[in-house]
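Let's do one together. I've listed all components of the complex below, 666 residues spread over two lines.
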Amino acid sequence: MVADMISTTLPTFADVEAAAVRLAGQAVLTPLLESPLLNDRLGGRLLVKAEVLQRTGSFKFRGAFNRMSLIPEAERPRGVVAFSSGNHAQGVAAAARLLGLPATIVMPSDAPAIKVANTREWGARVVLYDRWKEDREAIGAGISAETGATLVRPYDDPYIMAGQGTIGLELIEQAKAASDGLDAVLAPCGGGGMIGGIALAVAARSPGTKVYAVEPAGFDDTARSLAAGERLSNAAGASSFCDALLAPMPGELTFAVNSAHLSGGFAVTDAEVAAAMAIARDNFKLVVEPGGAVALAAVLSTKMELGGRTIAVVCSGGNVDPEVYAKALASVR
Amino acid sequence: MVADMISTTLPTFADVEAAAVRLAGQAVLTPLLESPLLNDRLGGRLLVKAEVLQRTGSFKFRGAFNRMSLIPEAERPRGVVAFSSGNHAQGVAAAARLLGLPATIVMPSDAPAIKVANTREWGARVVLYDRWKEDREAIGAGISAETGATLVRPYDDPYIMAGQGTIGLELIEQAKAASDGLDAVLAPCGGGGMIGGIALAVAARSPGTKVYAVEPAGFDDTARSLAAGERLSNAAGASSFCDALLAPMPGELTFAVNSAHLSGGFAVTDAEVAAAMAIARDNFKLVVEPGGAVALAAVLSTKMELGGRTIAVVCSGGNVDPEVYAKALASVR
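Okay, and this is what the predicted structure of the assembly comes out as:
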């Protein structure tokens, strides 16, 4: 039996508020940081939501815990299954440990070693697959069918989106305490779950604030889909070291939310991302993984100019292999 | 005229509480972080006070702002002068900017470049000196005598200690929310101002919690002085890459407080510190400078064993030159 339970209804702001209640005391209320020296250089106020400090080192715990809290008692012993390049894997594994559920995670064999190791350390069973030859969704669905485990999707699920949206709730409240107004929020975008959830919170709590998705160059499916008004895929053959953001196209539910709420998207190069990782180290003392640094990169590269305004960016994860981190930082001079 | 105004009275817990009021909205309430995976490995609960996220990238802003808030209006135009290897420099410079005071900072010519550059960027005038040939206290006192600037000492001042003590106030409150009890607090120790301020807060708010100073090997003057019951100097010729913690001997006021309140001290090697910097990167996603990582190093090296207990460490600063940071991390395998 497939205990998939996927809802096809779109998440609402009430779902985000309900997620915040479930996550209270479980998720870290991550700080919103600011560097006056960097503000001087950029000419405006840049606020950084330090989501690398979240449990498991990325925002993914929020959505996973929110979604998994809703699994009925009777289905919990059959556990959960998820497919993920790494951050969702750790989020699901950590939530499973807290909720006492068995977890199986399907991960690509070329996922960052730190992400695979941590997922195992959280107590999950890891099944590796070849991302060029095998279909992770089919593998996940197969395990779900065999074991009756609940499939926990990485983004195209209203409760996952609502969980990630709690970042937006916190951010708006923190920005109100720090600043007179918030002109825009930029967040990394893979499948679009985090940016969609954030957009719901911003629309409800700070309707004058614009929300933008940021993607790696070559993987800007959401930006192009928003411009075209329909879901478009990424061209084959692109590459980026932003391993967390390589989704092939926007999700159905995420695109429905994002096309209603986002003002657009930006794409950044690997070199721009590496430069952002160095600024995160020097000005914010944060270790940010490539995919977690794209929104910061969009501002630093002036794709999104600060121009005297107040803009918040989400640094969404910090799970980077030491060698990749060192190499990225060494490339910046 | 020397507007030194140094008090020779010891700080009290009431001074720490008063400092917290002055710092509200000015200092970052830094998070207390935890890594369940690391806890599993260590066998206990390790709480990390992420003071690298403080304004200016180290705790020093707290004491500097508290002390400088107390400069009488009439003396403010004459400004402040301070001597510092870097973190106190930035703290004083940032506080001066907020309070609208001119600041002159006397720094050793071999201070980390990032600390000198940031001090200038905060708007302070930097005077470099040769730490092997010149006496920084004499230079600072000379500038103070010439200009009438108020000398802001790095640690041996009750209001500096009280400001740093707000770390302890926050930490105790955060630990109470996170855990049933807190067995010990460990913090880096140079001149002893931070650990002394923290000890005052802990004694008042969590009297069952022990407090320990952690120093670099070869610079364990506080640990040896506590054991001997009198102030002892470090032997000449020692070296450490913990540039923030190379004070020659305990301060008068700091030693008076610390000998009354501390349970002892630990010394850690540079290699142990580098390993702690790597764990801070991997498990807490924090960039920690060598001197900021010594307390974490004391626990990771099992000089202070966790043994099922709950222990908090302060990671006190993150201002490390990129090359030093990369080299330290590359040394850990």
